[in-house]
Write a structure and sequence with these properties.
Layout (H helix, E strand, L loop, with lengths): L1 H15 L2 H18 L1 H8 L7 E6 L5 H11 L4 E4 L4 H10 L4 E7 L5 E7 L5 H22 L4 H8 L16 H38 L2 H5 L5 H33 L1 H4 L3 H4 L7 H26 L8 H22 L6 H6 L6 H11 L4 H29 L11 H11 L1
Parallel strand pairs: 1-2, 1-3
Antiparallel strand pairs: 3-4
C-alpha cells in the first residue's frame, strides 16, 4: 500500500508544482477577478464618470424639456444639453468628441414628435436604444394629450395583464424559486462540465506521457498497474479539488466585496445571494461521481496509446459524451420536467449533469436522486474493474495504438500475465 501513496503524492505534487498548472491557476484567478470587478475597470476607462453627453437640437422649441424629463427615468447618467448652434456645428462637435451623440427633435406633418440621432458610429446600441425609448414615451404622451387622456387613464394602458401561474403538484417550486435554481444550476453545470473534461484529459495525458518516456516499464516492476491507475485518478482528483477550492475561494471573496454592484438584477433574479445547502451538496456529489466516472474511462483509454499525439483521438468519443450531456442539460434548463430529460438522467454518462439539473430545478422524490447516484456508483465500479484489466495490459503495449480494437489486445495481455 506504501507504493500506492508514493504514486498518489508524486502525481499530486508533481502536477501541483508544474508550470502549466501554476500558470493556468493564476490566469484563471486573474480572469475571475477581472470579471467580478468589471464595473471598476469600465469606470476607469470611461470619461465623464461613464456619463454620456448628448447635444439636443430642438427645432420645435417645445420638446426639449419633456424629452429631458423622460430621459431621466430611462438613464439618469445621460447628460442632455440643449444645443443652440446649427446642425452642422453640432455634428462637428460630436466628431471632435465634445459630445457622444446629437439628437434633432422636430414634428411630423401630423404634429407627432420625431427625431434624428447621430454619433461617430452606431456601434453603441444602448445609447440609441435609450434615446429611442425616450422618444417613444414622448410620442405616447403627445398622443394621449390629443385624445385628452388623463395620466390615470394613460397609466391603465401600461398596466400589465393579471396573469398568475400556479403548480398543482405537491411541493412544486414557485416561479421565483425556479428562476433562482436555474441560475445556480447553470453556473454549477459549467463547473462540472469543464472540470470533468479538463481533469480527465489530464489523466489520459499523464498515463500516455509515462508510457512515452518508458517510465511505465520501471513502475510496473514494483507497483501493480491497478494501484498505478487508482493512485493517478485520486492524485489528479485531489489536484482538481485544490484548484477548485482556490477558484471558489477567490470568486466568493471577490463577489462579496462587490455585492453592492451586483445587488439586484441578474444576481437577485438568479438567486446567487442565497444558494440552498441541498443544491451545493448535490453539486459536490455529482461532481465527484462524474469525475471518477470519466477519470476511470480516461485512464484506461490513455493506457492504450504509446504516443501523446494519439491521446486526443482516443479520448474524443469520451469528450463527445460529456459535451452531449452538457447540451442536453442546457436544453433541460427551460424544460427540466420533459420526459426526454427524465430518461437521460438515468443514463450513467449523462447522470452527473442531468440528474443534478433535475434535483436543482425540480422537487423530485429523494429516491430518484438516490437511484441516479446508485447507477453512477455501479457504473464506476464496473469501469474500475474492467478498466483495471485493460490498464494492466494496456501499459505493456507499445507501437501505434489508436484504435478501440486494442482493448481486446490489452485484455489478452492481462490474461497471459
Amino acid at each position: 500500500m506504501n507504493n500506492f501513496w508514493i504514486i498518489f503524492f508524486h502525481t499530486y505534487l508533481n502536477k501541483l508544482k508544474s508550470k502549466s498548472f501554476i500558470i493556468t491557476t493564476i490566469l484563471s484567478v486573474v480572469l475571475m477577478l477581472l470579471l467580478t470587478n468589471i464595473h471598476h475597470i469600465i469606470d476607469l476607462f470611461n470619461h465623464n464618470d461613464g456619463k454620456e453627453k448628448v447635444a439636443v437640437l430642438d427645432d420645435t422649441g417645445q420638446l426639449y424639456r419633456p424629452f429631458k424629463q423622460q430621459m431621466k427615468t430611462i438613464n439618469h447618467k445621460m447628460i442632455l444639453i440643449q444645443y443652440k448652434g446649427s446642425e452642422k456645428e453640432a455634428e462637428a462637435a460630436v466628431r471632435k468628441g465634445s459630445y457622444d451623440a446629437m439628437i434633432q427633435l422636430s414634428f411630423t406633418k401630423q404634429q407627432q414628435p420625431k427625431a434624428v440621432a447621430k454619433a461617430k458610429s452606431i456601434a453603441d446600441s444602448e445609447l440609441f436604444t435609450n434615446l429611442e425609448q425616450g422618444m417613444q414615451q414622448l410620442k405616447t404622451m403627445a398622443a394621449a394629450a390629443k385624445l385628452h387622456l388623463t395620466p390615470e387613464q394613460l397609466q391603465k394602458f401600461y398596466e400589465p395583464v393579471s396573469f398568475k401561474k400556479s403548480a398543482l403538484e405537491k411541493n412544486a417550486k414557485t416561479e421565483e424559486q425556479l428562476n433562482q435554481a436555474r441560475g445556480i444550476v447553470y453556473v454549477l453545470l459549467f463547473v462540472i462540465y469543464f472540470s470533468v473534461i479538463m481533469y480527465s484529459n489530464m489523466i489520459a495525458m499523464e498515463v500516455a506521457t509515462e508510457k512515452t518516456s518508458r517510465v511505465m516499464e520501471i513502475l510496473i516492476s514494483s507497483v501493480s498497474p491497478i494501484k498505478q491507475m487508482f493512485a493517478k485518478i485520486l492524485g489528479i482528483g485531489c489536484l482538481s479539488l485544490t484548484q477548485l477550492a482556490v477558484f471558489l475561494g477567490v470568486g466568493y471573496y471577490s463577489l462579496k466585496s462587490n455585492m453592492e454592484f451586483f445587488k439586484g438584477g441578474f444576481f437577485d433574479v438568479f438567486g446567487f445571494n442565497e444558494i440552498p445547502a441541498a443544491t451545493i451538496m448535490y453539486a459536490v456529489i455529482f461532481f465527484i461521481l462524474g469525475y471518477f466516472l470519466y477519470a476511470t474511462l480516461a485512464a484506461f483509454l490513455g493506457s492504450l496509446v504509446s504516443r501523446i499525439e494519439d491521446v486526443q483521438q482516443m479520448i474524443t468519443p469520451m469528450t463527445m459524451l460529456v459535451v452531449a450531456g452538457f447540451m442536453i442539460a442546457m436544453f433541460g434548463l427551460s424544460k427540466p420536467d420533459a420526459p426526454f430529460i427524465t430518461i437521460t438522467s438515468y443514463i450513467p454518462f449523462f447522470t452527473p449533469m442531468i440528474m443534478f439539473l433535475r434535483v436543482g430545478m425540480l422537487s423530485i422524490p429523494a429516491w430518484q436522486a438516490i437511484i441516479g447516484i446508485a447507477i453512477l456508483a455501479a457504473t464506476i465500479a464496473f469501469l474500475a474493474i474492467f478498466g483495471a484489466k485493460v490498464y494492466r495490459g494496456g501499459v505493456l503495449m507499445y507501437g501505434k495504438s489508436n484504435s478501440y480494437k486494442d482493448i481486446k489486445k490489452a485484455l489478452q495481455l492481462t490474461k497471459n500475465e
